[in-house]
User: Fold this.
Amino acid sequence: MKKELFCITVALSFIAGVIFLPMALVLWSHLKGVPSRYQEKREAMSFFYHTMNSLFEGTYNPKEGSVSQEFLERLKEYEPQLGGKCKLFVVDSTHGYYECVAFFPSGNMFRLAVARRDGRWKLTALHPQDWDRSWREILHYYHVEHDSD
Assistant:
């Protein structure tokens, strides 16, 4: 009888652990203040759009330090043709780092990074991308045959 009671107790403990452990881990992460991947991505994208809006409107304060000097210089170079707005797509990410592509109404596209440094978000590495090259890479990646013309 004691052996059966022990087996039932072990089985119930195992089932309770399988059910309640994931819930406890989620609750613990919320209490600890660890942002979920979705929350962090949303925060990074919100930072990007807020910063780009202030850059285009001329209200960005360089003393904030939330945009790298390289990013500012490249943006200033292309700004007259960009159209003052853009759409961001996250290409790859790890915790605190988002590699993205920004598409502008002018047809320009840029690769950039939104990274958390010292607890703050920062825009870095604004690099223009070639549409034709990107298209060829996509076709090659998906094994699509195309004419060389």
Summary: The chain has a mean pLDDT of 89. The beta strands are 87-94, 97-103, 109-117, 120-129. The longest helix spans residues 2-32. Residues 37-139 form a domain with the Nuclear Transport Factor 2; Chain: A, fold (CATH 3.10.450).
